[in-house]
Amino acid sequence: MIEVRELTKRYRDLVAVDRVSFNVTKGEIVGFLGLNGAGKSTTMKVVTGYIPATTGTAKVAGFDVFEEPMEVKRRIGYLPEIVPIYPDLTVTEYLDFVASIKGVAKKAKKGEIERVLEKAQLKDVRERLTGNLSKGFQQRCGIAQALLGNPPVLILDEPTSGLDPQQQRNVRELIQALAAEHTIMLSTHNLAEVEQICKRAIIIHRGKLAADDLVQNLISRYKTPERTPNFYEVFDTMLNDLDRQATPAANTAVRAA
Ligand SMILES: Nc1ncnc2c1ncn2[C@@H]1O[C@H](COP(=O)(O)OP(=O)(O)O)[C@@H](O)[C@H]1O
Ligand SMILES: [Mg+2]
Fold first, then answer.
1. What are the structural domain ranges in the chain?
2. Whose CA is nearest to atom 7 of ligand 1?
3. pLDDT digits (tens, 9 = 90+) for 160-192
């Protein structure tokens, strides 16, 4: 469903994403992990067609993100890291506005808004101003707007960050419910969350692909006869190993000429 090949993104002299390749198949829910600055949001922005790649390709449902951006946008719901809400609009007004931008047909719009209000459990707050909602509910609004038009693929950039534990659980359960009908790529720093809801994890470190495997396999790699580590420990150990392997020359190579 998502095919990324040798993707590189440079911002001036900084290589934010460095020849990253991966696939996400239909129906999967994949955790996209890495420290701050690793290149997660950049990769997601390229996959959604929000920014162009420097080199390499990204395809969604077989359509090249840059050759057929409209076909791709129709098939992707994107929740950016910073939820794009307009504080002076009510929840319903906001969804109506996004539906128009997304090109949801006028006739279908009302029903579609009702559908996503229901899915994201926003019915009780539909007439409230989005700016007055708690962060958890604002995040639901972000997910609701991503669901407009019922795209098969969801790209969710840190959907649970900044939420209290209860809000995190609520949003996590919402995502889990969505996984039945959507292919989902989800970035997060909450590794327990990954263990709970993602079968597979893609880890990037300093712009490069560090791992792409089933969470259980990644844990098994670091298992000893005495002890099975949790996913936090696995992640930590993996990145430390990578940093130790990286020679000073490899580090300077991160900055292109
Ligand atoms: N628009 C931009 N211009 C310049 N540098 C950027 C821009 N966006 C991101 N970066 C840099 O690219 C790197 C990767 O950022 P990002 O993809 O946001 O990482 P992550 O989402 O994993 O935290 C970081 O070093 C970040 O500072
Ligand atoms: Mg980010």
1. 2-22+54-221
2. 11
3. 988 889 889 989 999 999 999 999 999 999 999
Tell which atom from ligand 1 comes closest to the C-alpha of 9.
Answer: 12
2-22+54-221 CATH: 3.40.50.300
Contact, 114 vs 96, CB < 8 A?
A: no
195 CA → ligand 1 middle, Å: 26
H-helix or E-strand spanning residue 57 = strand 55-60
Mutate to test the pocket of ligand 1, among 7, 9, 11 (most ligand atoms within 8 A of CB): 11
pLDDT tens figures, 65-114: 999 999 999 999 999 999 888 999 999 999 999 999 988 999 999 999 99
